[in-house]
Design brief:
about 425 residues; alpha/beta; Rossmann fold; seven-stranded parallel beta sheet; six-stranded parallel beta sheet; 18 helices; about 15% strand
């Protein structure tokens, strides 16, 4: 007797664009893991369709546009009756979680965090304070030094942290792309480890030979311009890092690629300085393969960085900061260099650019790191198994997570009372 396929509903913050952002790529990797398991997937989102949206129907994934604060979603989810509901970031759980609780209370609730927005926001605020206190400094060592305890102290009183962690509690499993963020949640916020599952980027390690040192030229930086850490990195490169590199390598070029290029970014384009804003890359791996060095001078952020995984896939050594490399290397030697000031980043980039032996060693380290940490043949089945096990013992799992059950109860009741109040008010009027 064949059992019916597991039905999954994904409520997306945006429609996935795997060639525009690491978050879009990670969502597609999750969906592919579900398809491999034979699950039936419906992807829904209240967002408008982006110009680089993935062709989900071609993969056998149904699509459905939904609206915020619209009761038509109630009929939709009742009819679909999913076994698993995956919320793409905590804002979608806030908007639709109570409706899922009302109509599909036994559906497994999964949260794809992408990264901890509350951590990213706290680090961004810390950078702003640093720039205000020392606007002429290009040494950000103090910025990269804080322990998780200090991150907790900065996050704990913020509205976004309270919202984000409440959503984690209301869900049965939250997918964490960064094991550093798992430590932050379990050690500092005291979130039960049973609510978190490490789910990094999932790729096939490259089997082919890499393009060698002598067949590559110039520097590359890549990332969605709508992502605040990427835009800050572009400004730091323009104002500080790139002039230092050009002093030592006058003829080199920097090509900056990113989806949704705003006018403020194109205004930075300056061929005379070797600073080229190139807009969106049709094939990110192709342009990455042509470059000799990937620059990712991120001064704040969270999660792990898809651009740096892409660099390893292409055999392109990268120069980044401790924030850029966070949770990516597992104490293994970095395939490039990690530095904390503009001068140190520039010197490391120039040394790698000119030294074939050092560059080739960094390339080999990237291949080793991919094979040991990001293998999709390991993480995909592990993800599916985690969700299936949680479904089998869902009642016990939720009983153990009393805080989450309490939060779901109050979220459902508060919306129910609000609906009754609105109906009563309308009758009086």
């Amino acid at each position: 007797m064949n059992l019916p396929a597991t039905k999954v509903l994904v409520i997306g913050y945006v429609w996935p664009e795997p060639r525009s952002s690491a978050a879009g790529g990670h969502m597609m990797q999750i969906l592919e893991s579900f398809l491999t398991a034979g699950w039936e997937i419906t992807f829904s989102s209240p967002a408008t369709t982006g110009e680089h949206k993935a062709d989900l129907p071609a993969l056998g994934i149904a699509e459905c546009a939904i609206e915020l604060n619209n009761s038509s979603f109630d009929d939709f989810i009742r009819e679909l009756a999913p076994d698993i509901v995956l919320f793409d970031r905590f804002m979608m759980e806030e908007q639709f979680g109570w409706r899922v609780e009302k109509h599909c209370p036994t559906a497994l609730r999964v949260l794809e965090t992408s990264d901890l927005q509350s951590l990213r926001d706290a680090r961004q605020q810390r950078l702003k304070e640093r720039l205000k206190a020392a606007p002429d400094s290009d040494d950000f060592s103090p910025l990269f030094a804080p322990a998780l305890e200090e991150a907790f102290q900065r996050m704990a009183d913020t509205d976004v942290a309270k919202r984000e962690i409440a959503a984690i509690y209301r869900c049965d499993i939250s997918l964490m792309i960064s094991d550093v963020e798992i430590r932050l949640l379990t050690e500092q916020f005291k979130v039960p480890a049973a609510l978190l599952h490490w789910c990094p980027l999932m790729i096939e390690p490259p089997a082919q030979a890499f393009v060698p040192f002598d067949d590559r030229a110039h520097f590359l930086s890549i990332g969605n311009f709508r992502h605040a850490p990427n835009w800050d990195a572009v400004l730091w490169m323009k104002n500080s890092l790139w002039p230092l590199i050009r002093q030592q390598l006058p003829g080199v070029q920097l090509h900056i690629y990113g989806a949704y290029t705003p006018p403020k970014a194109t205004a930075l384009h300056n061929p005379a300085q070797g600073f080229h804003v190139m807009n969106w890359a049709e094939d990110a791996l192709q342009v990455m393969t042509a470059a000799r060095i990937c620059l990712a001078p991120l001064r704040f952020g969270a999660g792990i960085k898809g651009k740096l995984v892409d660099a390893m896939l292409c055999g392109t050594p990268s120069v980044t900061t401790p924030v850029g490399a966070e949770a990516m290397g597992d104490a293994q030697p970095w395939p490039g260099a990690i530095e904390q000031s503009a001068q140190a980043l520039a010197d490391a980039a120039v040394a790698l650019y000119q030294d074939c032996a050092r560059w080739t060693q960094a390339q080999a380290r990237g291949r080793q790191l991919l094979a040991g940490r990001y293998d999709k043949t390991l993480h995909g089945p592990t993800l599916v198994d985690c969700l299936e096990q949680c479904r089998r013992r869902l009642a016990d799992h939720r009983r153990d997570n009393f805080t989450g059950s309490m939060l779901r109860h109050h979220a459902h009741k508060s919306t129910q009372y609000m609906s009754q109040w609105i109906e009563a008010k309308n009758r009086i009027v």
